[in-house]
Amino acid sequence: MKLSPLAGKLVPSDRLINIPRLIAAYYTDTPDPTVAAQRVSFGTSGHRGTSFNQSFNEAHILAITQAICLYRTAQKIDGPLFLGIDTHALSVPAQNSALEVLAANGVEVMVAENNGYAPTPVISHAILGYNRGRTTGLADGIVITPSHNPPQDGGFKYNPTNGGPADTVATDWIQAKANEFLEAKLQGVKRIPLARALAASTTHQHDYITLYVADLKNVIDFEVIRNSKLRFGVDPLGGAGVRYWPRIVEQYKLNLTVVSEEVDPTFRFMTADWDGNIRMDPSSAYAMARLIQMKDRFDLAFACDTDHDRHGIVARSVGLMPPNHYLAVAISYLFQNRPQWTGTTAIGKTLVSSQLIDRVAKKLGRKLVEVPVGFKWFVDGLIDGSLGFVGEESAGASFLRFDGGVWSTDKDGFIPALLSAEMFARTGRDPGEIYQSLTAELGRPYADRVDAKATPAEKAVLKKLSPEQVKATELAGEKIRGFLTRAPGNSAAIGGLKVVTDNAWFAARPSGTEDIYKIYAESFLGEDHLRQIIEEAQTLVSDTLSAAVAR
Description:
7-stranded mixed β-sheet, 5-stranded mixed β-sheet, about 35% helix, TATA-Binding Protein, alpha/beta, globular, single chain, Alpha-D-Glucose-1,6-Bisphosphate, Chain A, domain 3, about 20% strand, 23 strands
């Protein structure tokens, strides 16, 4: 990873995105469905792209929205559709395009009042709240966001009636139908002018903020935070939560400073990420440089990304916490401070999350459910209350209400951030200090991620590898005790390989966009051992793939 000289610094004005040109390209450029990169493609977080390269243009949004309307009809979903957007420049144009199609199809749509924003977790929360106690007329939702991606990007994702990310059955159907519309030059897409769509009896202004903020008291202990006299800071990073944090402060009378309420689609106030590009990534020390520099102004500070489904915690004791570190701390705290949760309530993690979580779960006497990458795998467990906390290594998490009921079935950045304040207020130690205590008892993990080259054929093999194809018996001096190509928590294919020893592990997964595979690795035996793990992992994977391709 070559570090840009701009990393952690404000980007020069001549390198900022030209917003008028970006929006013009959204309306004037037409994608070519014969070009793979210009087709609708739903990844783990919906369809993403930019109008500059014809991967996120008006035609995409019209086609996807019509496909969602047909999917709703096929699934007999006839309740309201909760529609949310973030602060990326392409989000408002995409919302307008979607509204033209939704209104033409007679869909009851709930848009944020006063031209506001509705973050990912707020849409999930709204869907669940509306559907609670209902068996018919169920609601679903759309969130227009590319998450923490650069300012030129747009994103469009669908959340069905369970409030969580749509599963691959749904997204494959929607994707296929949307591409059919692109190939047919949008024939079959129903659409009315925006002015008529906004004035339609089916388009409703909805107060997302009041309902979400008022309900937070059922998942976070604000009394202990308020009585602590600690000073907290939050940076919305110019994202969709920018109007929510002041209301949280006001409603719960917190000593919480919102360090910036600025919204600017160029995100010129953000410091550049490691590669010189702007990303609103709360787990990146480069993107979070502004808040990290402020850490001594507060006892604890936190931030969320653009659609507020990820969190970042800045503790005085350690600075910006890596996501895996905070996940372990949050789990340890929650399962000792939520007495209404049942004794069988389990912990959910993705297969590339820290093994420290496994050790915390064992210490707590709780079942651990390990699933492939993707928050959709946690939805059922959150709904039925069998999973108390779920998290992924990229700083996405959610957890249950005090009473053990579901809060959200999509990632929520607000509640892990607020939880860090609760745990500090109750324990007298910030999350960094709690992490240090945990690792003193359970061992300190060292982790890294690297990329390795792979041909398309090798990537295809890695994605469908079987444990029997791997011949190694040892990894960095330790006996291998497991080869995983399916997640132990639900037997779903992980789309790669995970190798586990007593004190280390690595996972290899092919990239969906580049001719590389990614190696995630962790060791409890030190930095040198971690480097040995990564080196041997690359050799093991390379040899296995070469042998398989040669057959």
